[in-house]
Amino acid sequence: MTSVRVDKQHDGNEAADSAPGEGYHRALGARQIQMIAIGGAIGTGLFLGAGKGISKAGPSLILAYALAGLVIFFIMRALGELLMYRPVSGSFSEYAREFIGPFAGFVTGWTYWLFWVVTGITEVTAAATYMTYWWDIPQWLSALVFTIILYGANLISVKLFGELEFWFSMVKVTAIVGMILICAGILTLGFSDAGDTASITHLWDLGGFFAGEDGIASTLMTLQMVMFAFLAVELVGVTAGESKDPKTVLPKAINTVPWRIAVFYVGALIMILSVVPWTHFKPGVSPFVAAFEEMGFQAGAAIVNFVVLTAALSSCNSGMYSTGRMLRDLALNGQGPKVFTRLTKSGTPLIGTTFSAALMMVGVWINYQWPGDAFNYVVSFATISGMWAWIMILVCQIRYRRKADRGELPQSSFKAPGGIWASVFALAFIGLVVVTMGMDQDNRVALYGAPVWGLLLAVAYLVLKSRNPEGAAFAKRS
Questions:
Q1: pLDDT digits (tens, 9 = 90+) for 161-172
Q2: Residue 154 CB-density burial (10 A; 0-12 exposed, 13-18 middle, 19+ buried)
Q3: Coil, strand or helix: which one is 363?
Q4: CA-based angle 125:297:181, to the nearest 5?
Q5: What is the pLDDT of residues 4-43, one digit of tens each?
Q6: Where are the domains of the chain?
Q7: CATH: 3.40.50.2000, 1.20.1250.20, 1.20.1740.10, 2.20.25.10. Which one for 3-17+25-466?
């Protein structure tokens, strides 16, 4: 959707329900959007990464997830307010272009594209690694097969993408709900090997609730890890241009954020830490595997391996989907090569998806050849890229609300609770997370990469401005 079309929409009392001329097919139904929203909040950060957080902060990691979950809810409601004002596939870059400026839209679109390319590289490689648990097959072969299958699925139709995400998310949800029910049964009925020792008092009787080495400071240092676990929750915004009924479906999906976090993160960790004392956890060991071992359930490792394999494929599938849409949005607004605007008959961005998939394949090869620290640094940088999208969502919501309150734009039908102040709080929280990253040696390198990427984008924008002044100044026409 172009900024020229935005002017026409602002004359009405309500934002348009769709983006005329985008060319996408509105094929994603309520069932698929709901599971995309749920799946976006559940990934390897919970199934694998939580073990490191528990060993560092103890039971207080639960509080960190709850607080971060509140911030994520503010971010998603801010996004929801923007989506109901103008539901478009470009989402974050479109809003940044309209409410901040053309350069902000340029940076946001390319940065979010980079985030998913790098994420896709790491996740398809991780999926190939998980396959070696069952079969002794070359890692590169599994990565190749997974990439081709997901690439093909994304080219066939958006509906097939939605179906894959639905079932990927269903596996993750079933695993977490199953773990919660098993742990609840052990606490109440006392069965399994953990039945004699399981107790909710484990949450405070082993050094206290803030049992980390540095107390509350240890909890604060896990915030970066916790926020990273929520990356991709905003993906539901990219689906806006292809939802059958965005004004009905998207608010419902966004409003499920609180209970998703309460059940899948806070609830799951309360149950697991009640069955398994937090002192039993180690970095790199899944809390789900540790819980299964404590129960004497030997097949637990295989189950968790299947779940994290699913989570990795889900993330790569999302990367295939979002990168093509972001490149097409940039191209439609004159901020990317025109070739990326092409769609297949089924309404999928052929060239953009193909280009992104090709880069993912190169990344897999590089990771296979040189699996060293340099690649890990690139992965760390991806988290900064993801948080940039959140920052843009919050800033755009603040600017939109001010304009709407002055009567310059139509009011959204889905206003964010807390209005501007909730977004200001969320921005301050993200700032705190960035500060803690600078204090952590393992994550500090991500902050070094951000200015380099910003410089590259600034140079690219200057080149664009000299060759295509209209594209560089596109947002000024809105």
A1: 888 888 888 888
A2: buried
A3: helix
A4: 90
A5: 333 334 443 333 344 444 666 666 777 777 777 777 667 7
A6: 3-17+25-466
A7: 1.20.1740.10
